[in-house]
From TrEMBL:
Cofactor: FAD
SUPFAM superfamilies registered for this protein in UniProt: Acyl-CoA dehydrogenase C-terminal domain-like (SSF47203), Acyl-CoA dehydrogenase NM domain-like (SSF56645)
Positions of the Acyl-CoA oxidase/dehydrogenase middle domain: 119-212
Family: Belongs to the acyl-CoA dehydrogenase family.
Chain ranges of the Acyl-CoA dehydrogenase/oxidase C-terminal domain: 225-381
Protein name, as recorded: Alkylation response protein AidB-like acyl-CoA dehydrogenase
Record key words, sorted: FAD, Flavoprotein, Oxidoreductase
Taxonomic superkingdom: Bacteria
Length: 400
């Protein structure tokens, strides 16, 4: 089949992607910095091809993201490492596109060029996994909103320039109704970040203290009281981002399969059965994520992404344990507990011991597995919800 035949088979949307890739490649020079190269890709709609034109996209189907990535690779265009701005790419950007005004959407380009790193200020010490119970206050004043409160388990806050923040603007209504959603400058006076040292030895997570932090009114996303609705857009995107994205035999299963092939002396029939069983589980999860990705073509992700996130956490913990067993005595060694504050996070980095310990956090970050199971039961399977005595009670009247 000739190249001309292949080009004739392209759909209109695929052709738009190919044209954008060719234009971006022609506008990119070897003398450019990485940041300048990423800017060219954004300006040609290759940052998120499913986003609207002008917001780093081409307005084409979400299902063409993989096609666009392949075309960029063939053209020698290297996209930015998403691990350097995970929250920005996977959670902030789609939420800002869905609810942001023109001025707020201007940050999308800086997210893609890695000029603006984002973190997520949702979890709080007193709210646990119940996002609706956050107590951080945002009080209206003549300059905008004054923020006071404390957040916890904030990934990459020590590197962040901006944050997506959920805070309470109304205590006179039930807890789900009094929340609002903000963009926050992490360099503003009153923002204090303290590292939380983890079982791995590093401090990837943080506590964030907010003391009389002034936010302009224009930093609110959506309208006052829409925080719960907008947060669910962020969380649904987060769970799809965490639960998907790996190619066949990619991610943690790739590490374990390599260990199996490299260490024949530790193989036995039981370990082989477990490896095959988990390989099938991971492949089934990958295909489920692919179907979710295709559903994204019709709009924002729904609660079904929770299944992918739950499977990711469960499989990672089982796989990392199996890798320890397949590594023999080497699996019991650890490289270093030195305190580190990583700029870029990789689940598959370092050694089997690191992966085993780090995987423990997979069932907490992005929503605990217990909360995820509740979402699947109530919002996917339609089972009766938990009995909630605080559903119709004003937040100020709830026992603290």
């Amino acid at each position: 089949m000739s190249t001309t035949d292949i080009e004739q088979e392209l759909t209109t949307e695929q052709q738009a992607v190919v044209d954008a890739v060719n234009a971006a490649a022609a506008a990119t020079t070897a003398e450019m910095s990485d940041q300048e190269k990423y800017g060219v890709q954004f300006d040609h709609g290759l940052a998120w091809v499913n986003f609207p034109v002008g917001d780093g996209g081409l307005g084409v189907s979400t299902s063409l993201r993989e096609f666009a990535a392949d075309q960029m690779t063939k053209a020698g265009l290297q996209p930015p490492p998403r691990g350097s701005n995970t929250i920005g790419f996977g959670m902030a950007a789609p939420t800002i596109v869905a609810y942001g005004n023109e001025e707020q959407r201007a940050v999308l380009r800086k997210i893609y060029t890695l000029e603006t790193i984002f973190c997520q200020l949702f979890s709080e010490p007193g709210a646990g996994s119940d996002l609706a119970a956050v107590a951080t206050r945002a009080v209206r004043n003549e300059d905008g909103y004054l923020i006071n409160g404390q957040k916890v388990w904030t990934s990459s806050a020590h590197n962040a320039d901006m944050a997506i923040l959920v805070a309470r603007t109304d205590t006179e209504v039930p807890k789900h109704q009094g929340l609002s959603y903000f963009l926050l400058d992490m360099h503003a006076p009153g923002v204090e970040v303290r590292g939380l040292r983890q079982i791995t030895g590093e401090a990837e997570f943080n506590e964030v203290f907010l003391t009389d932090v002034q936010i302009p009114a224009g930093y609110m996303l959506g309208e006052p009281g829409q925080g719960w609705k907008i947060s669910n857009t962020t969380l649904n995107n987060e769970r799809v981002a965490i639960g998907g994205g790996n190619p066949r035999e990619g991610g943690m299963i790739a590490q374990v399969a390599k260990t199996w092939r490299d260490n024949p002396e530790y193989r036995d029939p039981l370990l082989h059965d477990e490896l095959v069983r988990l390989w099938v589980e991971v492949e089934a999860s990958r295909m489920m994520s692919e179907r979710l990705s295709q559903k994204l073509a019709a709009g924002q992700p729904g609660p079904e992404g929770s299944g992918a996130k739950l499977a990711f956490a469960t499989n990672n913990q089982l796989l990392s344990g199996l890798e320890i067993a397949l590594s023999g005595v080497d699996g019991l060694r650890y490289d270093t507990y030195e305190m580190r504050r990583p700029v870029e996070h990789s689940m598959t980095g370092r050694i089997p011991g690191y992966r085993y310990l780090r995987a423990k956090g997979n069932s907490i970050e992005g929503g605990t597995s217990e909360i995820i199971r509740n979402i699947i039961a109530e919002r996917v399977l339609g089972l009766p919800g938990e009995h909630r005595v605080d559903k119709d009670v004003a937040f100020k009247d709830l026992p603290k």
